[in-house]
Specification:
31% of the residues lie in helices and 28% in strands. It is an alpha+beta fold. The strands form six sheets. Strands 3, 7, 8, 9, 10, 11, 12, 13 and 16 form a nine-stranded mixed β-sheet that branches. It has a five-stranded mixed β-sheet with strand order 20-19-21-22-23, with helices on both faces. Strand 14 and strand 15 form a beta hairpin. The longest helix has 21 residues. The radius of gyration is 24 Å and the shape is globular. It starts with 20 loop residues before the first helix and ends with a helix.
Length: 436
């Protein structure tokens, strides 16, 4: 994409309404704009990152054996009345009526909707088990939305649901999601630590939340330092095998948020204890028959008896992850994107737009990069060099390739690694090979 044609309304100054780093940088980098309190429009740069995160989440869900569907944002209140949550959920639920006076709601989550679907379509143990997910917009009417997309009212979420015949089978589904989450966050360039958690309004008896370490995190985190060195399950992990050893390893050492930490246990760890800040980026729950029993989601087992399904729920805040990545990966200049989710891999900077030789060299390189499938944002504007460098640092693309009259005379370009700041001179005719 040529920057001269791109809709990228960057800001030089920090917006006064932004209180945390991710909110400031997303506004300054032209990724989002507020529509109303806690609700944002996603501009082209922000949407590219959102879609990349969404795809990684999708691939890891598929790898774990989950099947994607898509449920509506608007749900009938009747389903939530059946489960008993309609009155209990609180004012965060946006309740509405359609033109016929029927009670509806903008879904904050989908346990009831997915239970109704499975209940209506599956009657026999022969059709079990099932793991289903979707990636859909949710709405929770936060009383004080703040921190940009980190605590907004409308957000994009991946929520998955497992259905099994008995507890042991449902625990295997839970373990699959546990492992899939570890892999997902690793692919996003994040180190996420699983910690035991309260189940909250979702309910259930087994729950873990995943937190990313960041200096500006919302929660206090107390964790054994060795957890940070645990290896992530590999690409060839067998999801049909016994995954309990992986789960046991990742939960074997002390890890707790400030809401659940134990000072006496922490004192015993001494200098092995890491006291840091963290951002919640995912939550998994096992809640048994909490929804299946009141909603009548049963199947016939091998003996002909009706059995209420064992269920689990697994959420990842897809849009929230962008904020978490920025909070964990930035510097004074701006965002530092992990390559896996960067909106573009390369920022190509023409230091002297309008110069025939510079234009020709940059145009050819831009064409070659695109032909090779290398995502490139080409700054072909007439801005001053300093403004171009600052803008590229702000939006945080992993690589910057700079071509100017001086280097061009020797057939050379300057290449900068955004994460390390290291620069090197590389022959222009070698650039394609370097990034392919």
């Amino acid at each position: 994409m040529r920057l001269s044609q791109y809709f990228l309304p960057t800001l030089k100054e920090n917006p006064s309404e932004a209180q945390i780093v991710s909110h400031r940088l997303m506004l300054r980098a032209g990724m989002i704009r507020q529509s109303s309190a806690g609700i944002y429009s996603w501009l082209p740069m922000g949407l590219r990152v959102l879609r990349k995160i969404e795809q990684i989440v999708r691939e890891e869900q598929d790898r774990a054996g989950c099947q994607e569907l898509l449920m509506p944002t608007i749900q009938p209140a009747e389903l939530w009345q059946q489960s008993g949550r309609y009155d209990d959920y609180g004012k965060e639920m946006l309740r509405i009526q359609d033109r016929h006076g029927r009670d509806m709601l903008y879904g904050p989550t989908n346990e009831e909707q997915i239970t109704e679907i499975v209940k209506s379509e599956i009657q026999s143990y022969k059709d079990m088990p099932k793991m289903l997910y979707h990636i859909q917009w949710k709405f929770r009417d936060e009383v004080r939305p703040r921190f940009g997309i980190m605590r907004g009212r409308e957000f994009l979420m991946k929520d998955a649901y497992s259905f099994d015949m008995d507890y042991e089978s449902s625990k295997r589904a839970y373990n699959k999601m546990f492992v899939a989450y570890l892999r997902t966050y690793d692919r996003l360039g994040l180190k996420a630590i699983p910690m035991r958690a309260d189940t909250g309004p979702i309910g259930g008896d087994l729950s873990h939340e995943f937190l990313v370490l960041a200096e500006t995190g919302e929660s206090g985190v107390f964790v054994h330092k060795d957890v940070l060195d645990f290896e992530i399950p590999s690409d060839d992990v067998d999801y049909e095998s016994d995954l309990q050893p992986i789960v046991d390893k990742w939960t074997s050492l002390y890890a707790a948020t400030d809401e659940k930490h134990d000072e006496s246990a922490e004192a015993e760890l001494g200098d092995q204890l890491l006291n840091a800040r963290g951002i919640e980026v995912g939550h998994i729950f096992h809640f048994g028959t909490k929804y299946s029993e009141p909603m009548g989601a049963t199947v016939t087992d091998q003996n002909g008896d009706e059995v209420a399904l064992q269920m689990g729920s697994y959420g990842i805040g897809v849009s929230r992850l962008i904020g978490a990545i920025i909070e964990a990966s930035h510097d004074d200049g701006g965002i530092i994107w992990p390559e896996s989710v960067a909106p573009y891999k390369i920022g190509l900077i023409n230091l002297k737009s309008g110069d025939a030789d510079c234009d020709a060299a940059c145009d050819k390189l831009y064409k070659d990069f695109n032909a090779a499938g290398i995502e490139t944002l080409y700054d072909d504007t007439a801005e001053r060099a300093g403004a171009k460098f600052n803008n590229m640092d702000l939006i945080g693309l992993p690589w910057q390739v700079v071509i100017g009259p001086r280097g061009l005379k020797n057939g050379m370009a300057e290449v900068k690694n955004r994460a390390t700041g290291e620069k090197e001179e590389i022959a222009i005719d070698q650039l394609l090979a370097k990034f392919s």
